[in-house]
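Entry 14. Structure prediction run on the chain below.
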Amino acid sequence: MNDTDSSGEVYWNDVAPSEKSEVRQIILDDVATTFKDSEGAVCFSKSGNYFNANGALASGTANVPDEFIFICTRTTSSSSCTINSDDGDPEEGNVYAEKKKFLFSIGWTRFGDVSLEKWSQKMGEGADGEPVALEGKWTPL
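Output returned:
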């Protein structure tokens, strides 16, 4: 069994038909990612024998999978999550605290271990009385 991306390139297949294969797909309308107008897939087995990526979730020419993906609430003013590539923190100021826009990081390993973290940020009051974002942090769920 194979599946192809929009360019026709095969990005996953069932190369071990004797093993129990399980494929899942999730489509969410009100969710954005760090990549815009693109698709991505990560395929892995619990044994770690198969680990590959395609599209926006692949790094380099060897289709090495990224280790995580950021997802956030899609709004009319923002259709992607803006993340600082140096420290992995959001670059959207106080939008996550003030506008209740949710941001999550989903990580995985080649063995199928999955982790979920949520960006937590509180609001404070600036010298001028206006709300300001305080330092945020990633909280494991």
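The helical segments are 95-98.
Filed with the rest of this week's runs.
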